[in-house]
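I hope you will forgive my troubling you with a question about protein structure. I am sending you one protein, given as its amino acid sequence and as whole-number tokens for its backbone shapes. Thank you for your consideration; the sequence and its tokens are set out here:
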Amino acid sequence: MHRYISQNANVNWQTGDMPICQIDNLSPAIKANIFYYDNTEWAKGYFAACHRDKAFQECWQSASGSWDDKIVVDIGCGPGNLYATLGGSPRLLIGVDVSCNSLKMAQTIGYTPILADAHNLPFIDGFADIVAVNATLHHCENMGKVLAEAARLVRPGGLLITDHDPQQTAWNWKGLAMLLYKIRVPIYRLLSFGKFMSQKEHDAMLKSETHHKPSDGMTRQFYYQILEPLGFTVNVYPHNHTVGAEVLQGNYGQAHMKYRYAQWLSGINPHSSEAALSLMCVARRN
């Protein structure tokens, strides 16, 4: 990995088997993500439950193709969900995160870890075949800066893929829907018969998701405005986490009833593309 680290990067190589890039600004979002994902039990729960289903796997495999013999950078890799789900034999698989414990977990399944801030990545330009940013942008204070940093790493002809960031128009709750959103946790806990996560874990998780809240999130225009001037051909696909490869053919599936009901109460057409919960961006560098 040394050859891909920028000469100007402040990286400590004398920390055992994990290079650490100095993080100059421990912002509230970075602190919240460290707190949540450094908790071993919470990270294990996230690894087991999130981004591991068949629809996710099929969608990503269709978007990225094989990772065999590729240089892949997974930004915000957490404990390694993406590679654990997709598999393959990358030539080099770099995992970037602010959580040391999650990186150690990712390392056990094949990642080469580096602790770094996604706003200021320590890598040279244009070396990666695939840069993946899954369920990460909305955890970062400056989503545009993180996206541009990720784009900087992609070689000509390479791919930048982001996914599982909330589509702003789908989460614009109003009136009764907003009230139900505010009281949802006690309802979930009651209906789960004690199986719902603890209050402490839930509060920590929400604190880490800086831009995943009503009336916040991503827009399709966001990706085009940032990536096209950087020389990318951009495609954005709304979806509801329920279909696989069909997402890339414009089938965004149907959200769970609770989301559709909240959208209906908020004056949002739950069957429209604007109501799809997440946006996936697949961008190829020209």
